[in-house]
Every structure is written in C-alpha cells, then in structure tokens.
Design brief:
2 copies of one chain form a homodimer.
Chain A lengths: L6 E7 L12 E7 L7 E10 L3 H5 L19 E9 L9 E6 L4 E5 L4 E2 L16 H14 L6 E5 L4 H12 L3 E6 L2 H9 L5 E4 L5 H8 L4 E6 L3 H9 L1 E9 L18 H5 L3 E4 L7 H15 L7 E5 L4 H9 L6 E5 L6
Amino acid sequence: MSNTATVRRSVVLKRRPNGSPRREDFEIIEDAIPSPAAGEAVTRTIWLSIDPYMRGRLREQQTYAQAVNPGEVMTGETVGEVVASADPRFVAGDVVVGARGWQTHSVTPGDRLTKLDRHGAPLSAYLGVLGMPGATAFRGVTEILQPKPGETVVISAASGAVGSVAGQLARRAGARVVGVAGGAEKCLWVQDSLGFDDCVDHRSLDLRAELLACCPNGIDAYFENVGGMVQAAAFDLLNPFARVAMCGMVSQYNEAEFPPGPNLGFVVGKRVQIQGFIVSDKPEKIAEWRKLAAPWVADGSLIYREDEVEGLESAPDALAGMLGGRNFGKLLVRVGHDVK
Amino acid sequence: MSNTATVRRSVVLKRRPNGSPRREDFEIIEDAIPSPAAGEAVTRTIWLSIDPYMRGRLREQQTYAQAVNPGEVMTGETVGEVVASADPRFVAGDVVVGARGWQTHSVTPGDRLTKLDRHGAPLSAYLGVLGMPGATAFRGVTEILQPKPGETVVISAASGAVGSVAGQLARRAGARVVGVAGGAEKCLWVQDSLGFDDCVDHRSLDLRAELLACCPNGIDAYFENVGGMVQAAAFDLLNPFARVAMCGMVSQYNEAEFPPGPNLGFVVGKRVQIQGFIVSDKPEKIAEWRKLAAPWVADGSLIYREDEVEGLESAPDALAGMLGGRNFGKLLVRVGHDVK
C-alpha cells in the first residue's frame, strides 16, 4: 500500500458470527479513498489493534457501545499517517493515533486524533503498552486494586496487553504478583521477563490447587480478564477486603449463552469489592498514562511484547486466534508501513 | 424473671441444624447467676435481638466470626439491666446494650456495654432502628449506594429491620425507592407507612416483570438482603454505574450448598460496583448513627416496626420464622421486663 494508492480496502461484517468469528463472517470491500470534510483528516493505516472487546461489538445486544452491524466496517483502533487533512492541526505525513476501522484508510474528526512523535516509542506501542490496553491496566490497578506492599495480587491473561502491564504495576507497588496464563511458554515469559513472582498455567489439571500453591496467604486483589474457571479458582481464594477489577471475561465472549457465575454469599462475608470498569469512561486517563509510562518504556523498565500479523485480510483470523488464546503479547495487524 | 432470681437460663446449641433451625437443635440449661469479675458487669436480659446473621453462626465454616459450637450458648445482642457490676462505670439498675447471648443473664466486659437513657427511645429500639440493623442500613446507603436525587433505588427485605431504614434513608436523599417484600400486607406497609414509592411482592408469579414495571428507568442502586430470585431480577435491571450494597442473602442461609449465582459479564459492561460490608467492621458507625437518627425516631419521621415474641424459650422458633420470612418488622424476644 503506497501513498499514491487511490483505492481503499475495508473489512466489513457480513453476518454475526456464531461462536468463534470466521473469515467467512467478513468480506473485504473496495471504494475510492475519500477526501476529508472540514475538520477531518484522512489517514493511511499503519497498525490496526486487535482487542478482545471487538467480539462484543459483533453482538446485537450492547451494553455500553454501538454494535457493528452487517454491512458496516469493523471497528478497531489504528495508528496511521495523515494523507490529507482539512483540520489545521494536522498535515500530510503526520503520524496519529485515534482513527478507527479495519481499513486501509480512515476519515476521522481531528478532535479524536493525537499526533505521535516518530522519534519516541515505536508507533505500535501507542496501541498497546502506551495506549488503551496500558491505560486499562493503569486504571484497574491504581483505582480499584490499590495493591499494598506484601499483598498478593493475581492477574489473569497475564501475558496479554493488559495483564502484562497490570502485573508490572502491582509489582512496582510492592505486591507479590501471581499471573495466570495459557501454556508453559507464556508462563515462563511472565516470570522471567515480566518479573512476576509466580505464574500458573490455566490449562493445569487442578488449577485451584496450583493457584493455592502460589498464593499461600490468599488473594488480596484480582485483575479479571478471563472469567470461567480462572475466575472461580481466584474467587475461592480471596481474602477479607479483597478487591476485584472486572476488566473482561474473554473466555466466554464466543458463547451464545453465558454460564452461571459464582454464588455471591462470599462477597458479604469477606467484604469483597467487585468493580467493573471500561477505560474509555475516562479518556483523559490514557494521556495521563502515556506521560507516566513513556519513560519506563524508554528505559526498558516496563516490558511489553507484541504479536504481529501481516495484512488487513488477516484481521478476522487474528481476532479468532486472540479469542482462543493463540496470540502471545499485544496483537497487531500490520496494514501498511511508515515510509518516513 | 425478677431481680431476685438466682438461676440463669441459657439456650445452648445441641447440634448444627440441617436446613431450617428447629427447637430440637437447641436446649435450655440452667446454672447459677454468675458474679462479675473486675471490669465486668452482669446484666439481666430484657430484650434479645433475633437477626439473620445468626444462621451463619450455626455453620462450622465461618468467614468473619466465630462459629457457635454444640454445647455453647447461642449468640445474640441484648438490652438488659445491670444487676451486679465490677466496673465503676455501671451500677445496678442501669440499662445497657452490648451484652450478648440467648440467656437470662450475661457477663460482659464493661468496655462492650453502652448505657442507655430510660427517658429516650424505647429500649427495644437500640436493637433495631437505633442499633446494629439501623447502622447497617446507614452504612450501606451512605457509603455504598450513595443515592442521588431522581435515581431509582431497590431495597430487598424492605419491611425488615435493615431494609425499612435503608429505604427511608434513600428517600431522604431524594431517590425513587422501590421495595421488595414478602406478601401483600408487608408491601402495603412499606408503601403506606414507610413511604416507599412502590413495593413488589417477591412471591409474584413474574417477579422480574413486576420489578420492571416499578422501575421503568432501571435500577441505579440495589440494597441486597436476600439473594436468589430477587437478586437475579434486580441485577437484570441494573443501569450503567449501578451500585450494589451486599448486606446479606437470607434466602439461602438454610441451604447446605449454595446455588450458582449470576454470570458477572454485566459487571464489566455496566461498570457495576458490588460491595460487601459488615457493620461491625466500623463499630464507631453505630454511635454515629444513633446520634443522627435518635431525633428522627423521637419526632416520628423515621418509622420502624417491631415483632415481639415472648420468652427466651421462643428464640429458636423465632429464628426459624425469620429465616422463612414470617416475622414482620424487627424481631425481638422479650426475655424480661424493665421494672423501673
């Protein structure tokens, strides 16, 4: 995809997936690259972020966002290069984050775009460790979990874009941090590279016993990304006055009907706080997080890992793979290249 | 029971109940009225409070308190008259709250006793509206639900000692308050006497539809006393950013195994806060509440209702009745009389 292209390609939802999304649920359409109206900019996509919340957008029923309907372009955050601007704050050649859509080119009101520094962190980082997933971890840990030195914090999906940051933040706060991840390779990375104190493979035959072995003093704070059996095991071990940051329950996103959950009697007896949150409710937190974390990324003290797939047409399979736990690190689709 | 009695009667747990407690699970034993050691006082019980938490104390497994074991006197808060004191702060004839036990006479460290004013509220009120249940409602509403004017607040067990106060506090805060109670008589009282905006009979054939009809704008805050189908119906109607004060789940207290609960996916999407609490974690709140609410009780603006049963030997049946929803208002056992 060069700067002189005239055709835009977009991934459009064809039909709502039944279970795991499949390539056949989407189709690629082509049209002319649009021109910006006043106040808008047109960007050429370099990176497209693939995130678990996207499965929710494919459902007809929504709780906090608009559904993506059949015939509409699939939604997703991108980093791109401005190719045409009718907003005086942007000129062709700028790189920006904030445009959306599984497409090679997006039209976006300038108010939603943030200009990035090509000499700062790698551009992809603004979709992961320095972007929405990083800010999600930041809010969950600082606003809800509030770990104290010596407490035990459990992070599910610990090798993922959110969990990897959440655990490192809890460690910086002085907590003992235990991850839960899928498979030996991820667990090894969570411990050796991220520096978590321990990590449990959620595919273990006796997850509860393994988690208990890693949390001999119980669990004081739990960062929930997955639901299902991991949730059940973690909830069983919660200590009095435990906090639970409810960020997502990816293990059930492909299910048509959600299974029953835990009996909540323990919430009373243990005075547990279970708090749901969505990062976009406080968009100002993303800028705050970027400012705080950029030096940590620059000095290498905040570790992150990216999992890159090639080409816009790979996005549906990438989403399906993420929902099955097959990515390893922040999942990104390379849609184009930064030619500067 | 006169002041010159020499025999003490106590209700002792004989065996752990299987399901609803029965009279046969307890026995009455007699011994001599004890003398106080230094710093203690001996009280003659006037009122014994019967509260839902007591069923939990009969289980072997405890989360925040000590179990009552077979052979031990059953626990419960009382108002009584000091008959002997080895604490200089109390003299025979004082009425106090804070002694515990299903018994005619209790020995208690003076530090746990609070002297009451015979010329203030009726003594029984210090076990209900001005006591632990009232303070429980106060904490749940002011610390967790934090109702705003125009919001919809739902209170389960609305005619009970806690729910009746919680709903009146939410109304004082300007919220629209909907109760859930068992039966037409209780619902009528909740609306006509307590002034709730509406009340749903939890025995309705279609509880969810009835609750929806009373909450056309959804539920912003829910005070949970009961669990089960009422919880399921209320959770279904929670609005974004709803708060849930988890005070108890009395509908399952007699169950050996607790049933599954709600799938918690909605907690994320709706950013719900579910917060458990136990009033005794902040004992100072009881004094704060008494001070705040005493004028409201005196001027009749805070309504309460008591359900009195006669005689210590009635306590086991009273507890069983409460767990089955057969009391109507704060349940009290009259163990003795105030002879002054």
